[in-house]
Amino acid sequence: MAEHILLVENLSDWKADYPSFSVVAAKDYLTLPVYSKKKHLHIVNLCRSYRYLSLGYYCSLLAEARGHRSIPTVRTIQDLSRKAIYSLDTEDLDSKLHKILTRRQENGDSTTFTLTLFFGQCEVGELKELAYQLFGVFRAPILRVEFKLQGSWRIATLKPLSLHTLKKDQMEAFFTALKDHLSRPWRKPRNRSHYPYDLAVLYNPQEQLPPSDPQALKKLIRVGKRYGVNVELIQRQDYARLAEYDALFIRETTQITHYTYRFAKKAESEGMVVIDDPDSILRCTNKIYLKELLEGNQLPIPKTVILRKDNWEEVEQQIAYPIVIKVPDGSFSRGVFKVENKVELLQVTKQLFKDSDLLLAQEFVYTTFDWRIGVLNKEVLFACRYFMSRKHWQILNHNAPGRPKHGGYETLKIADVPAKVIQVGLRAATLIGDGLYGVDLKETARGVKVIEVNDNPNIDSGVEDQVLKDELYQRLIEVFVARLERQRGGKG
Fold first, then answer.
1. Which of 218, 326, 395, 404 could form a disulfide with 386 if both were Cys (CB 3.0 to 4.6 A apart)?
2. Domain boundaries, given as residue ranges, for the chain
């Protein structure tokens, strides 16, 4: 039987005269082992803010890493953060909405209408079906919907609200909806389906450190044609044309607060086959999520501590200097700092806490190279050694004069890679999904350690394809084709 808990930012937000539920402070859920070890938890996240990298954001993010079910999910939080995303999901509701609100319109001067939903319930009888449909797409505990008359009635904004903003006359409706929600079986939002055969590759020709160089993209186009797939390069300005394609392959550095995520979300909403899929982007772009996920599944990682503004000094008691401090969503060695003493620790964390409520502190593990195990569709695709940049402790030195400086590389046949490296890398990638991942690992005297999992690993001409050559691109195309054929009911 699943256990339900309600998360609040401050325990004082749940007043003494409120109904009796299991209420937990957000920081306790994030840091106490009793919650990270529990299984079958259902989380109702009622934090004051779901802002990116806030406590509320992390509660939903780590709930997913721990295998807990949460409302809202971190994906819902992201989807509600931009009109460009959620407008995709409300188009089929607009015609019903126009008919209902036109009937309710008392005079021609009324051009706005606001509705507050509690777990998909509202007190306006005519809009109950619409409220339920909105909750099916955007599962948030409290959601304010603003409608505007712009030629016809449309949903203008969707905004999640926090518990402490509710008025007294709204509390009874909230508690009724909460009790009803907790008594129902947990259901996931429905997914749409579509059919594919033209492959769009999103890239940015101006990106300084792209996941694939121009030669690799040319090889992909050439191999695609050989197997009956039209591969076409697209850029940011092609967003409106995305639905013209059958599948999407993102070859640009992904971030949650970036149009790459919007492309992935739109592609999925259109029923397209997409790599990187939105869930993989969400999971891989946050190192704190990965820490919880890997530890929770007994995968070896360096000693790691989650830092808050009120506990940053405690890291010295758990990790010896030098200590590596990481921002949660850095990429290509950016947002990673090595501190040698307490003064540097204070300087670095003080600056980084301006943008994130949580940081990651990790023991410094030096090796002359990192392993990169490329995994596609839960099978190993390539294996490389990336060597540290000259006179630097990372494979990429962003402080070098001019352009960032890479270390060397060596691509090996899978059979020549230590079995433990392959085993751990494959397990780590499989925890994320069935897309394309690059798992970074270190071989140490204490065994193989997972450093991170990347959702859009580098595939550069003459590097990652050095062993397989065209076969690497062939395997990529074959995965897209197999998924497309499955969607069409074929045998893929």
1. 395
2. 3-78, 82-182, 198-283, 303-363, 366-479
